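Researcher: Quick test of sequence recovery. Tokens follow.
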């Protein structure tokens, strides 16, 4: 390791559904955060680590900032607010359709940050003209005057390389925080739960996906295969019926889709067993949120 090795925490914050997870996955070059078109997809703070001979970047994807309606969302907001306190570089992600004044209180805190702030205006592929983009940029410059602006399309990888180059330039000198082969701070089981949760988000409507938590109860890894047993927790009996579906059809579909993605993720054959249990009103119960890892 050289004397001028650089390392730092780069924390990604912003409102729900602006593309934070897509951007993080693009910057890290791995599919670490789950991505769906639904809001509140990310519930935890998830780290993705980029290692190079001259630097180590520890990216953090955080839950979208929102006014909490129940205890689970309070924990999610704590993850987002915590990201403001330990960043070496802060990336604030917005897009071309959201109202810049949304969550003004959180924005005011971002504006006071002493660390470099990079403002990513995502989804610029949706704009019709350069004039539209300039109007959005000038509006944001009044809200976050100290931020450097990066118009991007994370989905199309537009301008993400320039953003990465600037991040490396801004990194402080220091030693690596994690082993140089580390990709994330989360254990393998965590990604299994995230993949299953992603399939639930894409296969069910309305409130059901938000009432679900997934816990891996068995993760038995052998040389050629992994045997996984996971429990899907819901809040009510009626939701259990919806998750299982007629003759178990819906749960089977989730299982097949999740197993394929888990096999891709680990590069091994996977045997996946899914069960559904009711845990009444778990999103508002502190002991349950603690056991599910939302409260430390």
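Model:
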């Amino acid at each position: 390791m050289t004397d001028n090795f650089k390392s730092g925490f780069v924390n990604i914050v912003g409102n729900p559904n602006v593309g934070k997870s897509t951007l993080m996955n693009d910057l890290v070059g791995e599919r670490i955060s789950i991505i769906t078109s639904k809001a509140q997809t990310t519930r935890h703070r998830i780290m993705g680590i980029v290692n190079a001979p001259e630097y180590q970047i520890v990216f953090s994807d955080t839950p979208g900032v929102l006014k909490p309606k129940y205890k689970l969302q309070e924990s999610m907001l704590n993850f987002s607010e915590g990201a403001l306190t330990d960043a070496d570089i802060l990336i604030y992600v917005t897009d071309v359709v959201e109202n810049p004044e949304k969550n003004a209180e959180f924005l005011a805190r971002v504006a006071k940050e002493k660390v470099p702030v990079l403002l990513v205006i995502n989804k610029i592929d949706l704009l019709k003209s350069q004039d539209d983009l300039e109007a959005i940029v000038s509006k944001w410059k009044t809200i976050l005057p100290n931020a450097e602006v990066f118009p991007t399309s994370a989905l199309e990888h537009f301008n993400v390389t320039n953003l990465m180059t600037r991040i490396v330039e801004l990194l402080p000198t220091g030693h690596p925080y994690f082993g140089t082969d580390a990709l994330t701070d989360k254990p393998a089981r965590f990604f299994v739960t995230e993949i299953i949760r992603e399939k639930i988000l894409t296969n069910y409507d309305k409130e059901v996906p938000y009432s679900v938590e997934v816990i891996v109860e068995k993760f038995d890894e052998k040389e050629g295969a992994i045997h996984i047993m996971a429990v899907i927790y819901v809040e009510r009996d009626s939701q259990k019926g919806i998750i299982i579906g007629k003759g178990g059809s819906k749960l089977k579909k989730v299982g097949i889709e999740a197993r394929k993605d888990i096999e891709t993720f680990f590069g091994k054959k996977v045997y996946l067993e899914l069960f559904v249990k009711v845990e009444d009103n778990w999103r508002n119960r502190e002991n349950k949120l603690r056991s599910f890892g939302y409260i430390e």
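The CA atoms of residues 73 and 219 lie 28 Å apart.
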